[in-house]
Amino acid sequence: MSAILEVRDLHTQFDTLDGVVRAVDGVSFDVARGETLGIVGESGCGKSVTALSILRLIPPETGRIAQGSIRFEGTELTALGEEEMKGLRGHRISMIFQEPMTSLNPVLTVGTQIAENVVRHMGVPWSAARERAREMLDLVRIADARRRLDEYPHQLSGGMRQRVMIAMALSCDPQVLIADEPTTALDVTIQAQILDLMIELKEKTGTAIVLITHDLGVVAETTERVVVMYAGRKVEEAPVEALFDNPLHPYTRGLMRAIPRLDVEADAAGTRPRLQEIPGLVPILTRPIVGCAFAARCELATDRCRATPPPFVDAGGGHTVACWEVTL
Amino acid sequence: MAVITDDLAPSPGRRFSLATAIRRNPTIAFGGVLLALLIVMAVFAPLFATHDPFKLSPVNRLRPPSERWWFGSDQFGRDVFSRTIYGARVSLIVGLSVAIISSVLGLALGLACGYFKRIDSIVMRIMDGLMAIPSILLAIALITLARPGLGIVIVAIIVPEVPRVVRVVRAVVLSIRGQPYIESAIAGGTKNLKLLLRHVLPNTLAPLIVQSTYVCASGMLIEASLSFLGAGVPLEVPSWGNIISQGKTFFQIAPWTILIPGAFLAVTVLAVNLLGDGLRDRLDPRLARRL
Amino acid sequence: MSAPVLQVDGLVKHFPILGGLLQRRVGEVRAVDGVSFAIAKGETLGLVGESGCGKSTIGKTVLKLIEPTAGRILLGGEDVTKLKPGAMWQHRRHIQTIFQDPYSSMNPRLAAGTIVGEPLENYGITRGGETSERVAQLFQRVGLRPDAMRKYAHEFSGGQRQRLGIAKALSVNPELIVADEPVSALDVSVQAQVLNLLIDLQEEYGLAYLFISHDLAVMRHISHRIAVMYLGRIVELATKRTLFTQPLHPYTEALLSAATAPDPRRRRTRKRIVQGDVPSPARPPPGCHFHTRCPYAIAECKVTAPPLIEVAPGHHVACLRRPVGGGPQPLSVSG
Questions:
Q1: Closest partner residue to C50 among A189, A254, A276, by Cβ?
Q2: Residue C280 above 90 pLDDT?
Q3: Nearest CA in chain A to B290
Q4: How large is the ipTM?
Q5: Chain C residues whose C-beta sits inside 8 Å of any chain A C-beta
Q6: Mean per-residue pLDDT for A199-207?
């Protein structure tokens, strides 16, 4: 499988009053055609900034891509002008965000918003674009699509709005869909429906999905490959089964032990087992991190970990991990 | 005892430096310095003045600006420069006292309205009524009830300005009341008065300070307008409005009598507004966080 | 068995919907619609449900931050619904709260020590230097350095702020703590720290928790008994173990089937049992509120609201298709 999106050694930085924040600090990964890649990590790990960097949506007043390359279908995105990026965004690469209400224009009907996107990128007449919008609403299973075209975002429920966002994102047959916490604001039963829909549509349209989330459950249920990020760096990458069966990085292991589980039959007596904590806090990103970013919270850390950043070790089967102390 | 698991997020120590303060808040620095200069000028007016601002000198009527009369002279031969400097006193006194007194009154009423529902509807309807009358007309009406003087001018300007402060404070109080930290304090057994003084009041001060700068600027403009219309401070007092008003007859042959005090008024109002805009950007946590 | 710490009987809370030029009452949101439960000393009762189900409203009503429309709230055997604010003040000491958002539940202009010590001073339990000594102990107990007392809320991380909230709630030795989504704003690794702390404190002080959350996994971890809510009503109430192994209400079943689990193999075997959105609480469907999404609904469900019935000891369910002794066998789709 060929990679449609290649991110290499990406560094994205922001200027703040406290100094330069290295939000993304040397991240590399590939997205293959038609695959679902999960990027998982806690708040501040750089997963959303990675997405914004790919879309070139880093606000130029405060931030910049300082180094690295992002190639999409062979085109270097970091070298493109804003006009060319506008042609790509919403067309070849599209995105959905956490809060659908703020991503939709409140004064335009949903039909108009989807159709405008289609006209802008495909250059088809308005009537054809409207028809396309209706098709898309059908595709994301919004009942009574023709009537819904003329409704405004506030007339729709949260789940329905996220469906509209997905319809709009897919309306121009993108090669890559970047979804940043697409279900975090939704209720459990709605989240399940939206995740199922995304997977089903991916299989139907062949669009690759980059799913950014903090939720290991969502990652496990929807993705094929996973990148785990910590403090702006990638610490582990693996096919989803390998990652959950055999997490190698101490941080990934810590995360898996820290979540309360629904699927384990452990507490038959109704006792409450202690969750494993990861002690300490994430490092401050304005200070240069020497060595491994996780060393300060890691029980296996040695002097070498604190002095030199670990290289990626190949555990076989596409499973790589950046850790000095890992035993394969 | 629990193990201390968290290390405190270290707060980076920042040393205060004038250069960075100006770089970060150029509007506050610029407005503040300008205003400070004007205040110094007004306070030490006798030192700066080149002439006695009240002294009539019929031989030197309507002299253009020159070495002797920097800003020229008016139709009575009085030195426009000296009068303008003394005029700053009136404007600044009016502006500052209007700002301070309306803020205090507005804060009290706004807190009461935002906090006690029963008072709210009554007071706010009165405020709406006051705001429906053009402030100059309201001020003129109030002034006609009393003998002319600086005090009545200030009172006449405060009355239409107070509702603007009340509205801002009330809106802020209502939004603070919905904050979880207020519920948290109530749940912790905090009683009304303490809640108001400790949790609500301190969080209203930032928007109040910003609003008071706008009130200050607006107060100075109303004072100048009142003087221009002859309803302000007594004619013999050199206020910018009075100087402009008296110069208007001779505008075509002696434009300096109007332009110079007009320019001073504009610069003063600008300085106050810049200060207000800068403070708003600085004090609004939502804007500050974005930086 | 001793009297419950908290007993709620037939609690109703309707919020008016105002509309039109004159802000007349044009309708009402039935946020809580006849809810009853009790919490014993040292017990955690979980309230779980999706947004708009009324779980947070129950929390706030129990704290008397909002007034109930009807029903009784008994704290230590005394009905507090009719109490005047002054008399209620005495009761607040025994019932404290931890908020969801550690960012907005701290006054940004007060030092952390002042915030935590405020209830102590309000109730005159300690004064001056005594207060700071007690606050220092509380800081230690929840895992914060006592020298952090002088810092302001924004200088703490999310998890630390939640510890501050816990310290504040603990300060007056309450019997019950209402915790409204206390870990949902936290990262996974920090969430574990806070959940462990809550469990330790409960065991140490015999605290009762009313724990409100939308997260079933967190709920299962911390609760002893769980009440599942849907549109203002409790649809099922059971011990944790029963609820997760023998869910009887179709909505409980739906929630369990919709929850994601960190197991990539599970997705192939899962079947989702509900579709569609939660109806608006301003216009709840007649009869059983869940009938519009329920795969097992029959005609009767559209007209009759099912009462909450004890079908087995300690296991209550509100479903017409689950008669007494109905047992755990699966329902079938009919009609």
A1: A189
A2: no
A3: A16
A4: 0.84
A5: 50-51, 157, 159, 187-189, 191-193, 195-196, 199, 214, 216-218, 220-222, 224, 239-241, 244, 254-267, 270, 272, 274-275, 277-278
A6: 90
Closest by Cβ to A280, choosing from B5, B12, B14: B5
Tell me if C260 and A159 make a contact (CB, 8 A cut-off). no
Residue A31 or C333, more confident: A31
Q: Specify the amino acid at residue C309.
A: I
> Among B7, B12, B24, whose Cβ lies nearest the Cβ of A18?
B12
Q: Which CATH number is associated with domain C6-94+174-324?
A: 3.40.50.300
Of the CA atoms within 13 Å of residue B73, those in its CB half-sphere come to 23
**Closest alpha carbon within chain B to A19:** B12
SS3 of chain C: the string is CCCCCEEEEEEEEEEEEEECCCCEEEEEEEEEEEEEEEECCCCEEEEECCCCCCHHHHHHHHCCCCCCCEEEEEECCEECCCCCHHHHHHHHCCEEEECCCCCCCCCCCCEHHHHHHHHHHHCCCCCHHHHHHHHHHHHHHCCCCHHHHHCEHHHCCHHHHHHHHHHHHHCCCCCEEEEECCCCCCCHHHHHHHHHHHHHHHHHHCCEEEEEECCHHHHHHHCCEEEEEECCEEEEEEEHHHHHHCCCCHHHHHHHHHCCCCCCCHHHCCCCCCCCCCCCCCCCCCCCHHHHCCCCCCHHHHCCCCCCEEEECCEEECCCCCCCCCCCCCCCCCC
The reply to whether residue B2 touches residue C140, judged by beta carbons under 8 angstroms, is yes
pLDDT (tens digit per residue) in A139-186: 888 888 889 999 998 888 888 888 899 999 999 999 999 999 998 888
Judged by CB atoms closer than 8 Å, whether chains meet at A277 and C192 is answered as yes
Range of weakest confidence among A166-180, B20-34, C139-153: B20-34
C108 contacts chain B (CB < 8 A)? yes
Which stretch of A47-51, A269-273, C202-206 has the lowest confidence by average pLDDT?
A: A269-273
Task: Enter the pTM of the model.
Answer: 0.84
Question: In the predicted model, is pLDDT for residue C138 greater than 80?
Answer: yes
> What does pLDDT average to over chain B?
84
Distance (Å) from the alpha carbon of A313 to chain C's nearest alpha carbon = 23
Chain C touched by A98 (CB under 8 Å):
no
Q: What angle do CA A198, A199, A201 make, to 5 degrees?
A: 65
User: Alpha-carbon distance C157 to B8, whole Å?
Assistant: 8
| List of residues 6+ apart from A133 with CB closer than 8 A | A110, A111, A114, A115, A118, A149, A167, A171
Q: Could you tell me if A176 and A4 are in contact, meaning their C-beta atoms sit under 8 angstroms apart?
A: yes
pLDDT value at A82 more than 70: yes
Give all domains of chain B, ordered by start, each with its CATH number: 71-288 (1.10.3720.10)
The 3-class SS string of B98-111 reads HHHHHHHHHHHHHH
| pLDDT at residue B48, rounded to an integer | 84
In degrees to the nearest 10, what's the CA dihedral of B193, B198, B202, B204?
-40
**What residues contact residue C53 under an 8 Å CB cut-off, 6+ apart?**
C229, C230, C231, C232, C278, C281
Cβ of B10 and A284 within 8 Å?
yes
Q: Which chains touch A (3 or more CB pairs under 8 A)?
A: B, C
B24 chain-A contacts, CB cut-off 8 A: 17
Average of pLDDT values for B183-206? Answer: 90
**pLDDT (0 to 100) of residue C281:** 84
CA distance B289 to chain A (A): 10
Closest residue, chain A, to C272 (C-alpha): A192
Supply the pLDDT for residue A265.
56
- Interchain contact, A220 vs C255, CB within 8 Å: no
Nearest of B116, B92, B96, B115 to residue B104 by alpha carbon: B96
Task: Sketch the domain layout of chain C as residue ranges.
Answer: 6-94+174-324
